[in-house]
Design the sequence.
């Protein structure tokens, strides 16, 4: 017995981590989960597009296989593992293509103005017209772009000038020349993202490659590709430029051209890559310094890289630059200098939702200070922040007035490849004193600029004094606002609505002055310009005011049209009801969290209508003590917050009668809090 106890207490040797769980196991497991999720994604469109069912089943089965094989030691290594990985990438690309097709099949309209601009500009080029000299306005209707997809200026007018360098639309020209125009922009976006997946699979280390399919399948990336964000077009070029960029100074032959040519092409598609160039050049100079080069030799690689990049950038633009140089310059700098409305998911959200500051000029200064500060920190600490080289623009654009999610995430694939394919040597523990001072000063400058941006208040105070709704359509189509100008100068505001972080088309002013005098207030009535701009009653919204001179943003507090809603019991009458037989509906008041509201004496209104095939018809049912066909009929809630309605019908219409209940706002008298709709079919 004693020996048994001693044997039990004898510690067993602990295997090394590499013996217990290979590094690739986690990556393969994630890849398997993602493949399974692709199958589930496609399954949801089986009714609409039956052809996706079989690929969906294959992807689900493949995901289960990958996870099962990942947990068998050695099953996914060697030649077998490489073949399985190639198959996984291929299936991911197929899944992306099929899912994208279902999205276009469901909603064929272009989601953003940038896609419409690019394809329309390419069509103009085919007809011998310089797109930088033409308005892109006709593209809105041509590609069914929703007004919420426009880019607006601070005065409320949409941007209609081509705003990107030439390669952004010249990529379309060969396909248009071959006769392909239907959904071409979406197809090119998706194809570019598929190529990015393949490049990640090629260039990432073996133990990280399975994660390439996982990152490339994230909803944000595939939604951007299909939804109209054209950043996907430059990602493959940027990935190629990122591969081993720190070895460029030692590259010979074609290898000395591939990186800068690819980078020039990325710059020629969208301006996001422009912010990256100074960091890349500083990094190349830093690498030359680490090699012991001095003087001109230290700068040579950076200068050569700049020249080749410039060649790649300017060649596609030469015809437009020579034909109308000022139009070309205005076009390509529009995203940076045009007075466009702020938007995005970066710091600007603090001003949009938390009302932290109101000067857009101060935010622009903040982003410039962040650019200079990060550049200084990157230079004096190099190569400590070498891994940030291709990610630096995201860190800077976070502070910009337009800091869309695409600016923050689309550089990740290239940054990942850059990190995986460059050298990382041991570094001294501490910076020199001069370096520490520069870093601290740079961070202090950013903090000071941020404090100024936050401290500069909004010049206008906006208060929503009343709303007008569309009734059963459950949207707000007009508001009355009281606006006070707290500044020392007259201001001419333009108004829009913010609904869930999305700015609508600018609203029309029906009454009230266009200019508000200093230290005075005015009452205005604003109307939504179209249905897309009408906020739903089911969520909150705020009215946002912009001024162009000076560039400012002001907004109301969030207005919540609906705090309560109704639930009907029963929520369905599944069998036909004989005429004259009663149907009893109990309608309860619920709060936002679906908790019962115990409020006595609240009027609840129940309406009836027939949605016949030929159009709307009046129902002829009797609700409570009302006369046949009366709608709506009201009843008061009891102590438990429940209103009761008894319904009978003496007729048996050919279509069901649909019943829906609602509340009415005590102040502005708009209906809200609609219940579910319950159809009842009466028969003889």
Sequence:
């Amino acid at each position: 017995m004693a020996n048994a106890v001693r044997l039990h207490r004898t510690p067993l040797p602990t295997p090394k981590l590499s013996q217990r769980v290979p590094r690739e196991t986690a990556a393969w497991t994630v890849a398997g989960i993602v493949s399974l999720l692709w199958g589930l994604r496609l399954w949801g469109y089986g009714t609409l597009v039956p052809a996706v069912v079989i690929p969906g089943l294959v992807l689900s089965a493949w995901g289960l296989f990958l996870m099962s094989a990942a947990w068998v030691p050695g099953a996914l290594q060697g030649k077998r593992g490489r073949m399985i990985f190639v198959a996984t990438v291929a299936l991911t690309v197929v899944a992306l293509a099929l899912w994208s097709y279902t999205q276009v099949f469901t909603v064929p309209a272009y989601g953003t103005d940038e896609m419409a601009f690019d394809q329309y500009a390419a069509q103009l080029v085919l007809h011998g017209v310089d797109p930088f000299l033409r308005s892109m306005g006709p593209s809105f209707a041509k590609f069914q772009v929703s007004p919420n997809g426009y880019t607006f200026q601070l005065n409320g007018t949409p941007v209609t000038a081509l705003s990107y360098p030439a390669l952004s639309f010249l990529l379309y020209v060969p396909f248009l020349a071959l006769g392909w125009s239907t959904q071409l922009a979406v197809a090119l976006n998706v194809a570019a993202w598929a190529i990015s997946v393949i490049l990640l699979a090629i260039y990432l280390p073996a133990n990280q490659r399975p994660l390439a399919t996982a990152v490339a399948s994230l909803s944000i990336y595939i939604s951007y590709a299909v939804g109209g964000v054209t950043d996907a077009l430059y990602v493959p070029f940027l990935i190629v430029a990122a591969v081993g960029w720190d070895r460029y100074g030692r590259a010979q032959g074609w290898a000395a051209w591939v990186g800068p040519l690819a980078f020039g092409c990325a710059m020629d598609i969208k301006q996001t890559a422009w912010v990256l160039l100074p960091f890349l050049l500083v990094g190349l100079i830093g690498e030359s310094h680490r090699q012991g080069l001095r003087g001109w030799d230290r700068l040579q690689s950076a200068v050569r890289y700049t020249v080749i990049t410039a060649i790649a950038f300017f060649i596609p633009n030469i015809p437009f630059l020579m034909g109308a140089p000022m139009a070309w310059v205005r076009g390509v700098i529009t995203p940076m200098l045009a007075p466009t409305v702020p938007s995005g998911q970066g710091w600007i959200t603090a001003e949009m939702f938390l009302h932290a500051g109101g000067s857009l000029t101060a935010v622009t200064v903040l982003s410039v200070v962040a650019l200079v500060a990060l550049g200084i920190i990157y230079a004096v600490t190099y190569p400590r922040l070498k891994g940030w080289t291709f990610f630096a623009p995201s860190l800077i654009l976070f502070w910009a007035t337009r800091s869309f999610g695409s600016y923050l995430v689309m550089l990740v694939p290239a940054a990942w490849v850059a990190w995986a394919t460059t050298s990382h040597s041991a570094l001294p523990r501490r910076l020199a004193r001069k370096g520490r001072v520069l870093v601290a000063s740079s961070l202090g400058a950013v903090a000071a600029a941020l404090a100024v941006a936050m401290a500069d208040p909004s010049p206008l105070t906006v208060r929503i004094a009343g709303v007008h709704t569309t009734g059963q359509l459950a949207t707000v189509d007009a508001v009355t606002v009281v606006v006070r100008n707290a500044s020392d100068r007259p201001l001419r505001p333009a108004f829009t609505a913010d609904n869930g972080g999305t700015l609508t088309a600018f609203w029309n002013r029906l009454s009230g002055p266009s200019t508000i005098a200093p230290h005075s207030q005015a009452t205005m009535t604003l109307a939504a310009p179209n249905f897309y701009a009408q906020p739903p009653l089911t969520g909150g919204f705020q009215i946002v005011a912009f001024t162009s001179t000076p560039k400012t943003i002001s907004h109301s507090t969030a207005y919540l049209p609906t705090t309560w809603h109704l639930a009907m019991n029963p929520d369905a009458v599944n069998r036909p009801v004989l005429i004259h037989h009663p149907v009893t509906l109990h309608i309860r008041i619920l709060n936002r969290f679906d908790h019962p509201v115990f409020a006595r004496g609240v009027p609840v209104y129940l309406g009836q209508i027939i949605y016949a095939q030929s159009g709307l018809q009046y129902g002829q049912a009797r609700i409570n003590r009302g006369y046949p066909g009366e709608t709506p009929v009201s009843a008061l809630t009891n102590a438990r917050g429940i209103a009761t309605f008894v319904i009978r019908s003496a007729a048996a219409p050919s279509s069901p009668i649909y019943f829906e209940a609602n509340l009415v706002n005590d102040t502005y008298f708009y209906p809200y809090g609609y219940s579910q709709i319950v159809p009842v079919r009466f028969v003889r």
Notes: The chain has four domains: 22-106, 113-345+404-421, 460-555, 565-683. The chain is about 45% helix and 15% strand.
